[in-house]
Specification:
The chain is of the alpha+beta class. The chain contains 15 helices and 22 strands. Among the domains are: 236 residues, FAD/NAD(P)-binding domain, CATH 3.50.50.60; 102 residues, no CATH class. Bound molecules: flavin-adenine dinucleotide. GO terms for molecular function: oxidoreductase activity.
Length: 555
């Protein structure tokens, strides 16, 4: 879907340099998104305001906020993707008046689906949540009291290798296809990743080079493929594109939180519940409403200029707080009242890559939806494909929720990284892989529903894992959430949910500061991180040895 999913007429935005945003971790993934670092970034932004007279603009805005009519919103959320919807729900819980503006005729962004031939064909995510019922997203939904149900995987995964599928209930199950020698090196790598602190000189290394330092990659081909395919499926990155530190942090979190899960009803059911929740709590969602510009006065955000795409009418909406779920590039462009098309983003990407240090690196992918008469994957988790040319992994979400496809049929979704600019070739290789994996059954029982590429302004991740920015911007009152603001170690929608937690911590800090300035009692030490929580105990990871932890045996 993806490129096809963005209506040709929709105008996208582009800015060559993310100058207004604070890079969170850079390539090394060294700086953590702790509250302390957020506070520092927030203070830096405030300091830069003070230097340009923006502090007084903030005061003006505060006074304006107190004297505004009751119908005016306290906050405007740009984009009704998962990040935007979660932010809106959180702001409503804090008794703020919120408007969500979504340019498409529906909410959900890359985490929803369209019904096609009775199948829930997703606009992005494969109906899967990385850390399942114990994850950050699940925790946030519980706290918001948004109805949802996640079916955790019942396996660590299965692995298609040597022409057959090996099922691994827990981590030790990889012995079946690695054999004793490669399994020995698997445990060695596990020790280096999880028990020994990663030396500073190694954390910056791309993971493929890190692996080369510790194992003989030629003699351990399946072990290398194991890491490569998991990285391609989970991060949409090659091992050369992600640092050792980021792989270690992300893997630790994956093991500590728990098994991935399929969402009951699929992505659309979850974002649909969030939309209902927002409406019930008095929030307003405007669909087909495109933000054309983010407005500022003396450096402080004051609102947005929008266009109703159905009537063509333009309007200015005023609010002291604007939350952007559309990524740094598009947000930056809106600040400058600029826009370009998806085609221009893709065209300019090659040129930008030459300025590697300044470019925003997104994670790109290709996804195939297949409808099958027969079950091809016998579990609720991911089948990693170690003997394919392109496909990294496949899920069969109908094993968890049969309603995602017509009765008696199965939905199968494959995912791969796009490795060249030749999309036709990438598609052909995907089909060749599906035939290789399932043999005659593929031609006899399967129908390809869609093949979609995800890149440009509709990528798998707006910023590659480990290269994300912070939620704070140098424009007071303007914050970022979403998949370009993932904290280190949090992938996909877990990163999106955690980006919202980071934003809330900043907001609480600003509220606390403003309250304290009024009463003259502020001390930085009084701030406590309330929303971003630490991952569960590392002992949780031990549960993975024999079987996948989670609710799979219980529901
Ligand atoms: C192929 C693929 C597979 C994936 N698989 C998984 C998975 O299995 N599990 C998982 O957890 N994650 C997965 N992801 C990632 C996940 O889909 C994203 O991380 C998540 O949906 C991003 O949400 P978001 O709110 O940050 O952004 P988006 O979903 O992109 O939301 C942004 C919204 O803003 C709107 N918008 C943009 N510009 C404007 C404007 N000017 N005015 C108004 N509205 C605007 C857009 O229309 C969009 O609705 C996958 C993604 C892809 C593409």
């Amino acid at each position: 879907m993806a490129e096809e999913a963005i209506p040709g007429s929709v105008i996208l935005f582009f800015c060559p340099l993310p100058v207004r945003f604070v890079a969170a971790s850079g390539w090394s993934g060294q700086k953590s998104h702790s509250t302390a670092s957020l506070i520092r970034a927030s203070q830096a932004a405030q300091i830069s305001c003070a230097g340009t007279g923006q502090a007084s603009a903030l005061d003006n805005c505060m006074q304006e906020r107190e004297s505004r009519p009751t119908s005016a919103p306290d906050a405007i959320v740009i984009g009704g993707g998962l990040g935007g919807l979660l932010s809106a729900a959180q702001l409503l819980q804090r008794n703020k008046r919120v408007i969500v503006l979504e340019r498409l005729p529906h909410c959900g962004g890359r985490f929803t689906a369209k019904t096609f031939q009775g199948v829930q064909v997703s606009t992005g995510a494969v109906h899967m949540v990385p850390f399942g019922s114990s994850g950050v997203l699940a925790g946030m939904l519980r706290r918001l009291r948004v109805p949802h149900r996640f079916f955790d995987a019942d396996v660590f995964g299965s692995f298609h290798v040597h022409g057959q599928q090996y099922r691994a209930r827990g981590l030790l199950g990889v012995f079946k296809f690695l054999g004793p020698r490669q399994f020995f090196w698997f445990t060695r790598v596990g020790y280096l990743m999880f028990f020994r602190p990663l030396p500073a000189r190694e954390s910056h290394l791309p993971f493929d080079l890190w692996l080369q330092r510790h194992i003989d990659v030629k003699r351990n081909p399946q072990l290398v493929a194991f890491f490569e395919r998991i990285s391609r499926f989970a991060l949409s990155l090659e091992l050369s594109q992600v640092s050792a530190a980021e792989v270690v942090r992300t893997t630790k979190n994956m093991l500590r939180y728990g098994a991935p899960a399929i969402v009951d009803g699929g992505c659309a059911a979850l974002t649909g519940q969030l939309e209902r929740h927002i409406s019930q709590q008095g929030g307003e969602i405007r669909l087909s409403c495109e933000v054309l510009q983010i407005l500022q006065d003396e450096g402080h955000v004051t609102g947005v200029r929008v266009r109703d795409k159905l009537s063509g009418k333009e309007e200015v909406l005023v609010a002291p707080l604007v939350v952007s779920d559309i990524g740094p590039r598009a947000t930056n462009a809106l600040l400058d009242n600029r826009k370009i098309t998806q085609a221009e983003v893709l065209k300019s990407k090659a040129a930008k890559e030459e300025e590697a240090d300044l470019a925003l690196h997104e994670a790109v992918g290709l996804k195939v939806h297949v409808l099958s008469d027969v079950s091809l994957i016998p579990h609720k988790g991911i089948m990693y494909c170690l003997d394919t040319q392109r496909i990294a992994g496949i899920v069969q979400p109908t094993n968890s929720d049969p309603r995602l496809a017509p009765p008696g049929k199965h939905l199968i979704i494959s995912h791969q990284v796009i490795q060249s600019n030749n999309v036709e070739e990438e598609r052909a290789l995907a089909l060749a892989d599906l035939r290789r994996l399932f043999g005659e059954a593929f031609d006899k029982h399967c129908q390809v529903l869609t093949m979609g590429t995800y890149r440009g302004e509709w990528p798998v991740n707006r910023l590659a894992q480990g290269e994300d920015v912070l939620p704070v911007t140098s424009t007071p009152g303007l914050y970022l959430v979403g998949d370009a603001v993932k904290p280190s170690g949090y992938l996909m929608v877990e990163g999106v949910a955690q980006s919202v937690n980071q934003f809330l911590d900043l907001l609480d800090l600003v509220d606390q500061e403003q309250g304290a300035v009024r009463s003259k009692t502020f001390s930085a030490r009084t701030h406590r991180s309330r929303n971003v929580t630490s991952p569960p105990s590392r002992l949780n990871a031990i549960r993975w040895l024999w079987k996948a932890p989670g609710n799979s045996g219980k529901i």
